[in-house]
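Form P-L/3: holo structure prediction, ligand pyridoxal-5'-phosphate.
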Amino acid sequence: MELDRPLGHAIDEAARRVLPGGVNSATRQVGAPYAFTAADGAYVSDADGHRYLDYHAAFGAVLLGHNHPAVRQAVLTALDGVDLMGLGVTPIEVELAELACELIPSAEMMITTMSGSEATVQAVRLARAVTGRSLLVKFQGCYHGWGDALARNVISKPESAYGRDPLSAGLLDSAVDATLIAEFNDLDSVRALFESHPEQIAAVFLEPIPHNVGALVPTQEFVEGLRELTRQQGALLVFDEVITGFRHALGGYQQVCGVQPDLTAFGKAMANGFPTAGLAGPRELMERFAADVLLAGTFNGHPVAAHAAIATMRHLRDNPDFYLRTHRLGQRLRDGLGEITAELDVDATVSGFGGVFVLYFGTGPVSGYRDLMRNDHAAYAAFHRRMTGKGFLMLPMALKRNHVSGAHTDADIDLTLEAARDVLKEMRA
Ligand code: PLP
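OUTPUT (holo model):
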């Protein structure tokens, strides 16, 4: 496929006149100009008529595949009902919270927000209110949205994903400094922070699998240790399941590992691409939102997104094969890429979980953030550029993951592995 994009360039030029950087979210300009005009199932098309097999999947939000019939129908149904009231509650919001509480092991109540960032911002506030403490702990490399408190140490190399640490100008030092950084899969690093800041840490935030740096898989000992340590220390354990939620299991990664956090943030795949997210937890904590912790948002619980979320969750609940299938396809990709890189003697490590796969260009094993510093970002960029040229859409940033959706088929996996073999051979030549 030729990647000349005359229309893409024209749209990009027009976009740059009215949108800062030509996009509406920071990482969308990487590898641009892309201007997409159609999406169906596992495939998307751009304005210049190129068709791509989509592993980007809107950063993983599109779990069932684009334009999924059940979600589409639910959205159409929503349009026949109440659009937005801003007063009281709609039955659909109740149904959504009931369903989420039925599916998520640690959930007794859930608030609905518009984005994952809002869910984690609410978690920060609630944790501070509940504990009366101000410090937070997060893990190096994890991303929890754009809220001030957690927008630091997502990276440690300027050339990686966002190019800035803390993530944004305009943050108060006091906001950034109140977040302490620990090492993923290293319980001692968390213990040390509790020791050096006794009775000051309100919560530990964890992406159970840090997919914002690809896929670091936690040891069971690490997750269980965090649960025990936070309990002992009187801090909350917050799982940020904005990516892992609904993607890896109906009840999120907490169902996979059997460890229940105090609070859980959801988003992305929850409504198969429609804008809604949530924060769930036990009644005792969540009731604070009805007392002294502010929960507000004109569009919270929006009926269109709520209908889409219910349709997505029901589809997942009623089709238990969904996970078997996407996990099997993910495993095929991981195994296939592993075989190809071994055969071609490429210095690469394959990682992932379920339907998520990552190709790191560096020697494994990759179990902690430091291991990621061996990744050859230029090699990933070359791999990505060539795969895009062959019609495979993957995340353009190194240290990110790719997603299998419910619409991908075995034939798609065959094509992907064939293309990856050709690309890796070309790169070696
Ligand atoms: N938490 C995690 C783990 C994420 O990956 C993201 C987004 O990428 C967020 C929170 C923020 O979600 P949103 O982009 O919906 O605000």
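COMMENT: Confidence is low (pLDDT under 50) at residues 158-162.
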